[in-house]
Specification:
500 residues, mainly beta, Neuraminidase, 5-stranded mixed sheet, 5-stranded antiparallel sheet, 1 helix, globular
Amino acid sequence: MVLLVPQVAWASSFVAGPLVQASGTTSPFPAGCGLAPEDPNNPAASRLYLNSEVEPWVDVNPDNGDNITGSWQQDRWSDGGSRGLVAGVSLDNGQTWTLSPVPGTSQCTGGEYDRASDPWLSFSPDGSLHHVSLSFNVAGDDTTNAVIVNKSEDGGLTWSAPKTIIRDTRPTVFNDKESLTADPNDSDYVYVIWDRLVFPRGERASIRAAERAAAFAGPIWFSRSTDGGETYEPPREIFDPGTLQQTIGNQIVVRPEEQGGELVNIFDLIQNTRKKATRGQNVAVILSEDKGETWSEPIRFDRMIDPEVIDPEDGHAVRTADINPDIAVDPNNGDLYAVWQDNRFDPGDHPSVALSASTDGGLTWSRAVKVNKTPTSIPSGNQQAFTPSVDVAEDGTVSVTYYDFRNNTADPSTLPTDYFIVHCHPSSGSCSNAANYGNEVRLTDVSFDMEGAPDARGYFTGDYEGLANDVDAEGSDFTPFFSQPHGTDPSSVFFRRVGP
């Protein structure tokens, strides 16, 4: 008897364009700017990874699809943040890139702060570009930290002076993991959201403490602009998880106006309660039906189970998106897709990429499924898949990117790593079904050595990587934007267009 195995009929197979380095070969910052590693004001553990570019984010101009802009941390420090933030701007569909330091984010870009981190940007429908960052001091006992925004009217080539959303000088408060979303339905509205970590009196807040995602409390704070980023409303708390709980990884998407235009904020709800069912990391959302005026109670819809990644040979930490879920919205029907790292799918106790979908605006979510296509016939440690990003194109195609170690060898001195993309086209069936994800495309030309990346409490290319789509393209062109070491360079940012 012959068994007929049904095959997914792909509406279009993806192919990858050329791999293009978006960042420079050397740092664009002036020599000697900011704190030097040997400066006595610097924490003793600090190591500067000069010429490294990590943690990139990217967006495509809806008013001009040839304009693709990303930003990243430039010259990463081992114990948190970077010397400053740099934007990479393409005006020719990603073929060539121009570097544009984001002003005022740090001393190296004309600002007052020692370091900058967590770059994020978003285009408004009219082509205005908004950028947000976290800036902070580390010298001596100075714990000043701030959330800062910049605006560009020429696609990122030049930027406005920075505006401060919030600034704290108290040693027990640290603002962290901010993101920004320009409302795709209305260019007047821009949303900024972050967690505000509060430590017990007597315990000093620091970037190191914040990056451990461990605090006495960590409520969600929010601010918005109603005039296209010219001014922002006073920041305010919109959700407090309570004592010994916190949030992190907040990110807003906006549903199409025809579907209600609701704001959906996803985050990691970290609970240190005795309730076993919710203790630890939880994927949750809060919703707003009035452009951020009011917000719902949290909807906790899944767990993030043991998402940490390690070097299979020696157990060295690999720092990934293990505390950050990612979310995307279908620009036509408003369906939502969330991805995160999770080890529930494999007996080898290693993380894979989990995906869950919502068709009712975030009220209910589908059962999580594994969507990465990492081979399961290789050693368990090499099956680790991590730092997923998700995006949805105009035609409803859902794409997910991720790193994995499938090409790793037993050599303990290297950790070969690659970057991949899979997709689901609506004609294949429901994109909440793992069977409908496939046509995996390798985005790296050759494996890179993860051990060459900056070591920031683990080999580090970013707590997130960029993924957007070209709204001018026919069908579903995606724009992966990711960091990797190469040669003697500790990390550079690369772009690769992928589509039918």
